[in-house]
Amino acid sequence: MDRTVVLITGCSSGIGLHLALRLASDPSRSFKVYATLRDLGAQGPLWEAAQSRGCPPGSLETLQLDVRDADSVAAARARVTEGRVDVLVCNAGRGLLGPLEAHEAGAVGSVLDVNVAGTVRTLQAFLPDMKRRRSGRILVTGSFGGLMGLPFNAVYCASKFAIEGLCESLAVLLPPFGVHVSLIECGPVRTAFQDKLEGGPGGALNGADAETRDLFSRYQRHLERILREAAQDPEEVTEVFLAALRDPRPALRYFCTERFLPLVRMRLADPSGRGYVAAMHRA
């Protein structure tokens, strides 16, 4: 029986790396995984983990793919030897934290290019073949930051809100083609994501006023507590991806945690936004 061909972006660490390993080592041996990385020089940890997990030969391959470069995406697609991708996982992403006025233009552009335009480039490369074959699953790494605005995450939330609109629009369109889009809505996860923030934690803080800098310092302490108390293990998150992949009636959204759903419901319940804004400011 043909294996399910899965291509995942952003596999140098974090969710992408753990998902690639989870699928490649699945006891059913039903997956062929193409783990893609912007820099193949960073693939060492993936292969070390694959060896320790006992991934069968031929279950995992790495490809160079930079979502910022349409030619790189096309080249990766051409190197998939099966000639098809059954499941596309758009996972590559970057974070940006700090006061808006502290962000340099290059950092803002980079986050939007990777998180939004990069996802679009990837979909443009792989979606046409899925539509022709009238078969395919697309899983996109979402975030609670795409469902509600978070202080000092304005640009990151903007990018994730954009992904929500992108995926919801496609989810409406694609079922007649046999293609299904799902967002995997993640909360805090124990990965190196916070260590790889574009422009560092906070950006150029001297560009912000003293009161905003004080608020940001308080927010950082709040964030550290949330990460200690609520961050999930990547393995737990990968099981949600697997459940979405196997669901016979795919949903648009799958939630990795229910901890933040009351805030999402509060935001939706009051279209004026007053209640949500007040609650989040108090928090």
TrEMBL record:
<dbReference type="InterPro" id="IPR020904">
    <property type="entry name" value="Sc_DH/Rdtase_CS"/>
</dbReference>
<protein>
    <submittedName>
        <fullName>DHB1 dehydrogenase</fullName>
    </submittedName>
</protein>
<feature type="binding site">
    <location>
        <position position="160"/>
    </location>
    <ligand>
        <name>NADP(+)</name>
    </ligand>
</feature>
<feature type="binding site">
    <location>
        <position position="66"/>
    </location>
    <ligand>
        <name>NADP(+)</name>
    </ligand>
</feature>
<dbReference type="InterPro" id="IPR002347">
    <property type="entry name" value="SDR_fam"/>
</dbReference>
<dbReference type="InterPro" id="IPR011348">
    <property type="entry name" value="17beta_DH"/>
</dbReference>
<dbReference type="GO" id="GO:0004303">
    <property type="term" value="F:estradiol 17-beta-dehydrogenase [NAD(P)+] activity"/>
</dbReference>
<keyword id="KW-0560">Oxidoreductase</keyword>
<keyword id="KW-0443">Lipid metabolism</keyword>
<feature type="binding site">
    <location>
        <position position="143"/>
    </location>
    <ligand>
        <name>substrate</name>
    </ligand>
</feature>
<dbReference type="GO" id="GO:0006703">
    <property type="term" value="P:estrogen biosynthetic process"/>
</dbReference>
<dbReference type="InterPro" id="IPR036291">
    <property type="entry name" value="NAD(P)-bd_dom_sf"/>
</dbReference>
<dbReference type="Pfam" id="PF00106">
    <property type="entry name" value="adh_short"/>
</dbReference>
<dbReference type="GO" id="GO:0005829">
    <property type="term" value="C:cytosol"/>
</dbReference>
<feature type="binding site">
    <location>
        <begin position="10"/>
        <end position="38"/>
    </location>
    <ligand>
        <name>NADP(+)</name>
    </ligand>
</feature>
<comment type="similarity">
    <text>Belongs to the short-chain dehydrogenases/reductases (SDR) family.</text>
</comment>
<feature type="active site" description="Proton acceptor">
    <location>
        <position position="156"/>
    </location>
</feature>
